[in-house]
Every structure is written in C-alpha cells, then in structure tokens.
C-alpha cells in the first residue's frame, strides 16, 4: 500500500471530508472501517464502564517540538516518555493537536475546541484521548502556559507535562472508532473526557489563526456502537 503523505486534503471544497476516500487508495482503505469518528455522545445512552475500560495515565515532564501539518498545530515529543495503559497494554504519547471547534459532541453541545492526545502501541495501534475545551479570555500566562516548564515557539522547544491538557475530573467516555483525519483508519480506542477543560485565548493566539479554524470532521454515524462511561 502506497502511503503518500503528500496527497492534499482539507475541510472544504473538492478535497473536503466528503471526498477524502476518493483522494488515494490509502484513504479509501481507511474509510472502509465501518465505525468512524467523531460521533455525538449522549450520557443517558451510555453503559457504565468497569475496570476493563479504565485508562491509566503515566504522563511526565518532557521535551516537545511544535509543527504545522495535517491542517493543525502538533506538539510532538522528542523521546515519547509519557504513556497510558489500557487493557494491560502500554501506549506511548506520540502527538498532541487541536481541532476548532470540537469534533465530538457531548450531550448536544459542541465545544469551541478539542484537544487530541494521540498514543501508539508498539505494533502501531493508536489510542486517542479527546478533551473538549472552552476558550477563556485571559492573558499570558494563564491556561496551560502557567504550568509549562519552558515555552519557546521561536526555538520550537517546549518542556511541559502533557497532563496540563487534561481536565481535573477523570471521568470519560470510551468507544471504538477511527482516526478523524485521512486515512480515517480504525479500530481506534477513543477516550473522551466528560468535563470540559479550559484553554486561554492568549495560548491559542500564538498560532496562525487561519490554520486553526474549522478543522473539525463532520459527525459520523454512531450505528450500533456501545459507548461506556467510566467515572
Ligand atoms: Zn485529531
């Protein structure tokens, strides 16, 4: 399978979400996974999760660099020291990025922003944690910047504990879906936090505004999927 990362895609027009699966064979194959993301989650229609659905976070302070690709800003760790454990398996944190507005809808509410913390198991299987956020007015150094150990966008080096992107309450929904960007492959274990987090406008204003607008994939059919709620 040719994995051409240069096949352009976007959120509007002829390379938009409706046509992603037509842009190349790799995207076509990903789109064939029947349970796509994002979806609308309704708390009242979830199943109580148990220990099997639990996610354990082992995040620590580490060094990241920020890059612009795939229509958003990404923070990429140098050494991949932070990880989560799900079903007895370790998934290393490989990428943090944003979508404006949120991709997942919780109880009929779309949030202004959604953070994705992307993890990967040794065999390449992904696990994604989604955090819906409000954008609060605030000036520097409110929001994530306050706890950052080093924040240097000029040198492209940031040192922080990625837990600053997680809300305080560890209550989350778990379901199986897909990546929300091409090649939209699955299965991906998704964990979407119930509580909204807060990001300051000053934090976002550090990045070019035009790439952080409308980069959310439309809702996908939930079908008969089970959604667990762990609290
Ligand atoms: Zn994402």
TrEMBL record:
It catalyses: hydrogencarbonate + H(+) = CO2 + H2O. Keywords: Lyase, Metal-binding, Zinc. Its EC number is 4.2.1.1. CDD domains: alpha_CA_prokaryotic_like. Residues 7-231 form the Alpha-carbonic anhydrase domain. The keyword GTP-binding does not apply. SUPFAM superfamilies: Carbonic anhydrase. InterPro entries: Alpha_CA_prokaryot-like, CA_dom, CA_dom_sf, Carbonic_anhydrase_a-class. Belongs to the alpha-carbonic anhydrase family. This is carbonic anhydrase.
């Amino acid at each position: 399978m040719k994995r051409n990362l240069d096949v352009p895609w976007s959120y509007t027009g002829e390379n938009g979400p409706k046509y992603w699966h037509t842009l190349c064979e790799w995207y076509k194959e990903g789109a064939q996974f029947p349970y796509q993301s994002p979806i609308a989650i309704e708390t009242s229609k979830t199943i109580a999760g148990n220990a099997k659905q639990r996610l354990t976070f082992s995040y620590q302070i580490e060094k990241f660099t920020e890059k612009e690709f795939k229509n958003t800003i990404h923070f990429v760790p140098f050494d991949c020291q932070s990880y989560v454990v799900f079903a007895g398996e370790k998934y290393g944190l490989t990428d943090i990025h944003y979508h404006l507005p949120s991709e997942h809808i919780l109880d009929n509410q779309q949030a202004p922003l959604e953070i994705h913390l992307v993890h990967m198991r040794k065999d390449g299987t992904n696990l994604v944690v989604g955090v819906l956020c409000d954008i609060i007015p605030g000036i520097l150094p409110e929001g994530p910047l306050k706890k950052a150990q080093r924040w240097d966008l000029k040198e492209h080096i940031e040192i922080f504990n990625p837990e600053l992107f997680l809300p305080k309450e560890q209550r989350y929904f778990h379901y199986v879906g897909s990546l929300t960007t091409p090649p939209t492959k699955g299965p991906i274990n998704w964990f979407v936090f119930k509580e909204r987090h807060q990001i300051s406008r000053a934090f976002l204003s550090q990045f070019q505004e035009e790439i952080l607008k409308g980069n959310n994939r439309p809702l996908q059919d939930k079908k008969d999927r089970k959604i667990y709620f762990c609290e």
